[in-house]
Amino acid sequence: MTAGAADLPGPLFASTAHAQVGDASLDFAVIGSSSAGNTAFLRVQTPRATRQILIDGGISPRATKGFLSALGYELAETSDLLFTHFDHDHAKAGWARAAMRDGIMLRCSHSHLRLARERGYPDVCVETFDARGDGFTLGEMRVIPRENPHDDGGTVAFRIETPAGSLGFATDLGRASGALIESLRGVDILAIESNYDRAMQLSSNRPEFLKDRIMGGKGHLSNEECIDAVRAIAWPREPEHVVLLHLSRDCNCPDLVRNLWKRALPSLEPRLTIARPYEPVGPLRIARNAARNTAMAVEA
User: Fold this and answer.
1) What are phi and psi of 63, to 5 degrees?
2) 93-103: per-residue pLDDT in tens?
């Protein structure tokens, strides 16, 4: 078992460069994030090894391959696919064939195994973890899951610690609990849901049962709820990057969100990246020079 968060190096600097510099590097990108499909990418490189994973399979393998190629990466180098949950916009059936063909391990919570099977994912390609446990190791990555309320099956957030730095990833949250906030505090890159604007949601033509589902504490985070969560997570150390996930195409607006951040969290707004439905954002990069035990901003 690798070291936990307390054993890893301290604060890091980050940039969006994609260069081979430093002894350890972490690259993070969002392939797509919306009700049409959600997939994110993480690659960690050290002198000893390289590990590349995906978080959620809501973008088809073919589209993911094309998006990764455009960013300078290869889908064939992916070893694992972590699932937050199994709504259709997070788990496309095509990943069953891709996993068998390419040897990708599909990893999900014990409580989601039935849903993985219903999606057609073969047991031979699926490995489960305890979402209430201490986590598991993937090469140089230490993955610490955190269970959260969302509809009937719940969802899983992840804190991923690496020699280069840390990523917090949380989407489709009914609410940001104190336990979730504590689990993500101090990460270098924070990717978190900011699904809807409350006024737009209330005035929309959506049926009342859908509004109640989204806003009732087991659906999604509003812009204001996201900001409250980030404010708590960012104390006492702010993340170098914040990536907003899963913005509603009907009940949210990127410009509205950014203006809200300028008023509510002005110190973090310049570090804000808003994920898009059909185009990748990133990669964001963190690099550490272990020989000098210093963090660096990597120039493009």
Assistant:
1) -65, -40
2) 999 999 999 99
